[in-house]
Specification:
Blueprint (H helix, E strand, L loop, with lengths): L1 E5 L2 E4 L4 E8 L6 E8 L6 E6 L6 E3 L7 E6 L4 E6 L8 E9 L7 E2 L3 E6 L1
Parallel strand pairs: 2-11
Antiparallel strand pairs: 1-3, 3-8, 4-5, 4-9, 5-6, 7-8, 9-10, 9-11
Length: 118
């Protein structure tokens, strides 16, 4: 199983980025997918999650209204569209997948760095 995250980079405050996470070796459509982030010196935190068919999404309060999670099951890919970025969004962003009925995520990607300058 591999989750390959990409799309990170350096952007100015107020800018936008789109992260992608391509999955392989797993029945992607059977997995809830999520995005998490970890800033330097801080614990990893939840960002967003999406249901298996994409009909249900949940967001952390800190990103609600600015970030949008989506998925393409035909392409085995989950996305995180980030707008109105703030310096406090700076972190390594990770994608992860979990099966129905499980509270813990089974698989994690390697992370992609997002840096927002003021």
């Amino acid at each position: 199983v591999q989750l390959q995250a990409s799309g990170g980079g350096l952007v100015k405050a107020g800018g936008s980025l789109r992260l992608s996470c391509a999955a392989s070796g797993m029945p992607f459509s059977m997995y809830f997918m999520g995005w998490f982030r970890q800033a330097p010196g801080k614990e990893r935190e939840f960002v967003a999650t999406i249901s298996r068919k994409g009909s249900s999404t949940t967001y952390a309060d800190s990103v609600k209204g600015r970030f949008t999670i989506s998925r393409d099951n035909a392409e085995n890919t989950v996305y995180l569209e980030m707008t109105s970025l703030k310096p406090e969004d700076t972190a390594v962003y990770y994608c992860a997948g979990r099966r129905l009925g499980k509270s813990d995520y089974d698989y994690w990607g390697q992370g992609t760095q997002v840096t927002v300058s003021s």
